[in-house]
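[step 3/7] inverse_fold.run input=structure_tokens len=218
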């Protein structure tokens, strides 16, 4: 167990390396690419609409953060003999595609067409009825922090960039340090997997919020 604990502590310290200097600098004004709406659009959300999705700076930073965390979990400690279930739990709980793919699926269930674009100009050139700005934020565990959080927020605008409404979901959990010497490998793996459940919970709440938003605009 001593070797296993040393490997686990080495992993969380390595993960902190991508969490501290490379941590996302989330903006308190996540929709800076669009001017604040002075009025609410008369357009309502309908299942028949075409939606263009763009990422704001927070989502772009979040994807880079998760990709770095995931890469460290995959490749950072190959020679440290970390038990496979624990390492796999870190990999699974930092999948950078989880939020994007789940949001895509939620949108596809609510709208006729959903397409992702690299920027606002490209989205507007496609002439969709609705433009959606996606904001995601994640905090995963390191040796410096056991607070795990996930947030998903989507703001909808009409073709004139007038605000329509938003859907959101979030969750968080404070975990005990995973490298505690009294914990066995299955318990550690379960705890690390709880990071993924926090993300899943936030995405499920986002999905419910999106359904309610569309249903409120028949």
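[step 3/7] decode complete -> sequence:
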């Amino acid at each position: 167990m001593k070797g296993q604990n040393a490997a686990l502590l080495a992993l969380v310290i390595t993960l902190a390396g991508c969490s501290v200097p490379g941590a996302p600098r989330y903006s308190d004004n996540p929709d800076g690419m669009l001017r604040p709406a002075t009025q609410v659009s008369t357009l309502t959300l309908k299942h028949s609409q075409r939606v263009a999705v763009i990422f704001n700076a927070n989502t772009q930073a979040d994807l880079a953060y998760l990709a770095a965390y995931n890469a460290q979990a995959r490749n950072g400690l190959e020679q440290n003999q970390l038990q496979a279930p624990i390492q796999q739990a870190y990999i699974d709980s930092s999948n950078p595609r989880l939020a994007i793919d789940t949001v895509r699926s939620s949108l596809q269930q609510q709208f006729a067409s959903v397409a992702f674009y690299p920027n606002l100009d490209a989205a507007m050139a496609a002439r969709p009825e609705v433009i959606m700005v996606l904001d995601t934020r994640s905090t995963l565990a390191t040796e410096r922090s056991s607070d795990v959080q996930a947030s998903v927020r989507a703001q909808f605008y009409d073709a004139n960039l007038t605000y329509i409404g938003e859907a959101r979901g979030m969750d968080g959990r404070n975990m005990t340090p995973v490298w505690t010497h009294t914990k066995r490998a299955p318990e550690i793996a379960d705890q690390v997997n709880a990071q993924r459940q926090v993300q899943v919970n936030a995405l499920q709440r986002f999905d419910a919020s999106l359904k309610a938003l569309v249903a409120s605009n028949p």
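[step 4/7] annotate
Residues 185-215 form the longest helix (31 residues).
The radius of gyration is 19 Å.
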